[in-house]
């Protein structure tokens, strides 16, 4: 693949800024809308069930297309796919902003998910080829990881401020100047790449199987809370999704030009890092979303106050990921830094599992916000490990896979932990507990389960992952992209 890595240094860092901006829009869009949901429902007349599709339409499109988009970037050129995805996302944001019916807003959100998948899937692939030197790559991944880690918290702040100060339409309109500026700069600074050509991996059958399987699987998970995990529709759609993904796996093992070459998942670092990420992201749902619910429903915070209360977490994540993570990875190795970050996050969730009904922000919540520094340690290290086992021709696919497992972890975390919290709350209310006591008990359970998932992530990382100080080699002895030190 002819991806330039001789781009002038200044242009490479500007290109990184463009990629990070694209990621920021994607992450912000996943969280900024949650704070505005009540206003959207009131203005457009959504039913309670229909309102969930303002979020679900985006998640289903985004999560199901990441893997395919990542491979397409390898085949037709990552720059081309990034530009197309950013353009689709920006246009869909305009459509969402002017939406005056529930159907139009849901359709626009689906298109936003499509554009986000196209741009986000190839971001890491572009990055690892722009920065082949280990020291520079460590810094670049730290910037990229900071954008993803802090973006969700910033989204909650912006969502509250824009909704309170203007109205919900502006949570989508804000993407327009950012998207147009990102496109203008990207055209000038992103290196041109021809790609491998569609003939190198144009497995149409495999593409159909994996996209349909992921779309149906994510749909099953996001609807499970409403339908019940053992309901007939949930079991039926889940079974079909599993069959489609199993057929995809068989297809990839036998296809002449597979969409996902088996060598990618045979890499211990790629497989292990993606498994750790699914567990970590699923667990952290209990921090990001459950904490926001606790602040509003138990402590009585408003939308803007909730966003500001979560701001210390975003700031500490940014300070750690940008300020020290690259140096720590270079000095101690990614595996040790990752394990330290996971340990801090486990303590964070364990502390919140004991949160009282009448909590003091300073003594009961702020320590947990500061322990979010663990995410600033864990994500850059995990990203480096997850990309270190992929060769240059597979960087887009590895990037798409890494983003896909993140979305799967998020969807499962939302569905499972929300169901557990709601079930516990319902039982407590039936037993005579007050609303605040019942809600707090449900949230504590979600935090405790999240802590358990984080322990599992630590165990997987300790068992499967190894340092990537030397350039990794794929199982077929092809040299891999040099890893960050």
UniProtKB/TrEMBL annotation:
Xref: SUPFAM superfamilies: MFS general substrate transporter
UniProt-annotated location(s): Cell membrane
GO cellular component term, pick one: plasma membrane
Keyword field: Cell membrane, Membrane, Transmembrane, Transmembrane helix, Transport
Cited InterPro entries: EmrB-like (IPR004638), MFS (IPR011701), MFS_dom (IPR020846), MFS_trans_sf (IPR036259)
PANTHER family (alphabetical): BLR6921 PROTEIN, MAJOR FACILITATOR SUPERFAMILY MULTIDRUG TRANSPORTER MFSC
Protein name: MFS transporter
Originating species: Catellatospora coxensis
